[in-house]
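Cross-check.
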Amino acid sequence: MGESFMRVFIFALLTFALVAPAYAQVHVDIGIRLPSPPRLVVVPEVRSVQYVPSGHSNLFFHDGRYWAFANGGWHASRGYNGPWAVVGRNVVPQSVLLVPVNYYRARPGHWNQWQRQHPPRWGNEWGHEWAAKRQWRDRHDDHDRGRGRDHDRRDDRRDDRDRGGPGRGR
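Predicted model, tokenized:
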């Protein structure tokens, strides 16, 4: 009897542990209400991300999810109208964070002093500890731009060949 009770107890505990995180998400209303699916446009600087050019919200699409920056925080959803889940800043894909300021439709006021063709200064916004964990650099010379490190190296080698760099003898 004790062994079967233990099996049932462990099964119940595992079931709860797997189901509980789904209920732990906080869904919030961030004011995005669109009458139909929005037109998405590729962000040229980060081709894996699309943005919604119309409207007054910071709405992006990447890897099957909508990402919204609202009220100083990030939210994610599978649908363009939500439900929106609050997500931690460490969960937001780097590709989304690399989108230049120019593509944010509802920018915080202090962002206006930043260069619009560069990503927001997330390291300044969220602190050095966050920047260190994400290996974030608040510089405009981040060549990765969401394409992946291997892609970046291929581009660098191609650029070297085009300029008569290493191994070309031009």
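The CA atoms of residues 33 and 103 lie 19 Å apart. The mean pLDDT is 76. Passed to J.P. for a second look.
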